[in-house]
Amino acid sequence: MSLSATVLQSVRHRKNAQRLDQWEHRVGQFGFLRMFEQDTPLLLNARIIEQAKTAASHVQEAVVMKKGAVTINNTRSCTIQSKESTSALLTFTWATYSTDFTMAPYQYFDNEIQYADDLAQKMLEADEALAIEFEEGCIAAAIAGRTKTAAYNAQNPYPVASDAMVVDPDDMFDFYNQLKIVMKLHNFRTGKINIVGSTLAEADVLRYGADRSLKSVNGAISDSDEGWQLFGYNWKFSDYIPAVGHVSKRIFASAPGAYGIMNWNPKTFQMGGKSTDGHTFETTPVMPLSGMSLGHQYYSECLEGDKIVESHQFSTDVCFVTAYNGTPATVAGPIFEARILGEDYDS
Fold this sequence. Notes:
The chain has 347 residues and is α+β, with helices and mostly antiparallel strands. It has one domain. It contains seven helices and 13 strands. It has a six-stranded mixed sheet with strand order 4-5-13-8-6-7, with helices on both faces. Strands 3, 9, 10, 11 and 12 form a five-stranded antiparallel sheet that branches. It is flat and about 90 Å long.
């Protein structure tokens, strides 16, 4: 078993232990990262996903087909007009993420903090830091890929500004009811709608329940409860969606298969390489927060003649993908943002 796999067992154990510092190690909600992971098999085919993990180099591009225009005539003719389909290559953009830390085994002699505990904590902190980076990368990709203002159907019942529907707080619950129709207005009629909301949006779902489990003091559901309008969505929440002035909640709704995420580790890590100067390379199991198998580089060196310092680096290359849209300026994509204004907003 690899070193990182062994330490991950300690990470899982520590998460269940009761300690005075247990609330020192809180982590946020990574709703966008989880949604990207869930959506990936619906957007990318299995060959691309597998190649992204095991290839000697990055998956660079994929073939897509652009929707064409069709001419309708009012006469028959023996001269048949040609119609050519248009294909394109969608280029994937990769970025490298890495984080380092060191361990000095001599520090743990007669120390209440043991080597395994400290190593597990540092690994967990590294995993969390990477998860935050990946969450923010997912959010940036969703914002870049959302439906543009001019591409909204003219019948959309909400004003649109900065590529987002603007919802008055008094219309909040009816908005969730109408959101299904907004999706249909743009010809998205398949599957349960996915929603990633900013943290405050979770309060409404918890209050009413998202799966026909409306909550009230006496257990009864009154006719005045509006929570039924929240039904029919796959909900996730993120603590990292940027705040916008006068906006209490940001909502990103999408059709299934809107998002994808891939990660890749160099072949040296995949093969478990070892250099003559003591550097070893491996891939970790899937990490609990970042949700990825990372490349782990390890080496040790001697300091001051009798002290050893161990160095660890965790890294991976990541690609964030959203569904292809050949004409985003005028045609809606599968991602829609809504901004629910705060109660104190004065229009």
